[in-house]
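Figure 6 in text form: structure in, sequence out.
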């Protein structure tokens, strides 16, 4: 890996393209380096993971709406179209990226990477796959494209913080997905450079989508970025250009949206001929909740068994969670969002409330992607009483570990202190989730398949599950035009033609 120095340049400095970050990202995309076997293995795992969380969302309102929008945009010219999760009908690739991106993101249940910024790198898969299907590419092409998407995403997330300036993390998806599409299609450096610039320029947004009354747009935001990446690639292939320099310009993204005119970043990127290993730094979720909640669910499950007395609010005076800056200020009491303690709050809001999540996991000793968020579950009297006794505080040591680049030190959990009404104090801590590569039960192919089968049960027939799992595990063998096999069609008892017809109507 080589660190690339990135700073703001005045217009009169005339920064050469070869020295611009977008160009260096494009060079990574066009490098024809072979994909490592372990990277290919993980790419297959993440395609399975995405399919699992997507099929579990097929009847949820945001997906119903996004799918209906996609179905209003039939297969475009000069390609065979792309598939939409749950149905056999094909649509134009940018709209398949849109519908599938929403389905993948809705439950907040797919992979994650946390460093200087937060991210869900699996958001890159829907747009890259949609273009691959439309363009009739092979499984090997798809593998190379996804490897690039993950690499660029991870490298940007390691180096450029967005949330400090209240810019949403989807701003890194536009460039990464554009780069992945560039690799997939074998585009030249100039074309990928222009697509990356457009992909970034069109996908910057504020973090209000993850604060206050968190709306259904939380699932749509990364899908929009993926859709924009497809469109950016299309425009660039037609010779259309982007703002240059997009990152370093005096009126560019860094100067006015991020660290300002005096900003300095060191962005690590693979050198020419160096394997793209970025996906290996990422990890998935065992539970449907914001990633910083993963370890806390696991610790709460443990305390449920070891200290059942803590599940009754009558026994508990207070629960103090000592954790990282992010967990405290984004999903903890430090956010100063009353909605994080509101039993009538949306699922999206409860998904970003560590006081709620810890309380329910502590009382139930488990976590379910639907039941744990049900209005009747959130409104239970004893749950509300215990929930309101939970507060968070930033602990500098857990913040330090959160930002550490030493994988043996890096942590996304913290320590909990439960004070009982009789004066007893129960303490415990957890660094990483059980499913994390360094956790108690790291996810491997077996766990990804189990997650898929669990979430697909009652939605996808066993025969269709088997067909999909066989196809995806032969990904490198799939030839040009065979990537439609990576779609998963729901049973008609779950998603029928009548259901599609009765979806909410809009403009299209």
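Output sequence:
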């Amino acid at each position: 890996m080589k660190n690339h120095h990135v700073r703001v340049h005045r217009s009169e400095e005339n920064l050469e393209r070869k020295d611009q970050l977008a160009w260096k990202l494009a060079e990574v995309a066009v490098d024809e380096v072979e994909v490592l076997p372990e990277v290919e293995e993980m790419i297959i795992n993440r395609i399975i993971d995405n399919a699992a969380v997507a099929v579990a969302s097929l009847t949820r309102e945001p997906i119903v709406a996004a799918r209906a929008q996609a179905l209003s945009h039939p297969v475009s010219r000069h390609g065979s179209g792309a598939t939409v999760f749950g149905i056999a009908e094909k649509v134009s690739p940018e709209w398949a990226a849109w519908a599938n991106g929403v389905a993948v993101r809705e439950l907040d249940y797919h992979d994650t990477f946390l460093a200087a910024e937060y991210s869900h790198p699996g958001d890159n898969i829907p747009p890259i796959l949609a273009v691959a299907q439309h363009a009739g590419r092979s499984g090997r092409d798809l593998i190379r494209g996804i490897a690039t998407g993950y690499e660029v995403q991870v490298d940007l997330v390691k180096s450029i913080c967005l949330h400090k300036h209240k810019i949403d993390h989807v701003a890194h998806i536009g460039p990464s997905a554009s780069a992945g599409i560039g690799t997939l299609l074998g585009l030249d450096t100039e074309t990928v450079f222009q697509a990356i610039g457009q992909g970034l320029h069109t996908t910057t947004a504020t973090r209000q989508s993850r604060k206050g009354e968190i709306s259904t747009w939380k699932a749509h935001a990364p899908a929009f970025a993926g859709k924009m990446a497809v469109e950016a690639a299309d425009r660039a292939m037609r010779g259309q250009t982007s703002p240059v320099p997009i990152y370093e310009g005096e009126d560019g993204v860094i100067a006015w949206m991020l660290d300002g005119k005096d900003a300095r970043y060191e962005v690590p990127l693979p050198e020419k001929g160096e394997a793209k290993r970025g996906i290996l730094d990422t990890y998935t979720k065992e539970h449907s909740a914001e990633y910083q909640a993963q370890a806390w669910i696991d610790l709460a499950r443990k305390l449920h068994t070891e200290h059942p007395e803590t599940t009754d609010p009558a026994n508990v005076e207070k629960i103090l969670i000592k954790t990282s800056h992010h967990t405290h200020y984004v999903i903890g009491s430090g956010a100063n969002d009353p909605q994080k303690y509101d039993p009538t709050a949306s699922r999206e809001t409860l998904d970003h409330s560590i006081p709620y999540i810890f309380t329910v996991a502590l009382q139930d000793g488990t976590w379910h992607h639907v039941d744990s968020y049900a209005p009747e579950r959130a409104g239970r009297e004893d749950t509300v009483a215990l929930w309101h006794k939970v507060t968070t505080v930033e602990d500098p040591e857990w913040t330090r570990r959160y930002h550490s680049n030493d994988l043996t030190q890096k942590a996304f959990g913290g320590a909990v202190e439960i004070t009982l009404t009789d004066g007893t104090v129960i303490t415990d801590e957890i660094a990483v989730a059980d499913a994390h590569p360094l956790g108690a039960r790291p996810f491997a192919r077996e766990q990804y398949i189990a997650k898929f089968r669990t979430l697909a049960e009652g939605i996808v027939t066993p025969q269709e599950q088997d067909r999909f799992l066989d196809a995806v595990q032969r990904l490198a063998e799939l030839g040009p035009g065979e990537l439609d096999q990576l779609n998963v069609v729901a049973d008609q008892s779950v998603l029928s033609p009548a259901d599609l017809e009765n979806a909410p109507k809009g403009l299209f």
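Caption detail: The radius of gyration is 22 Å.
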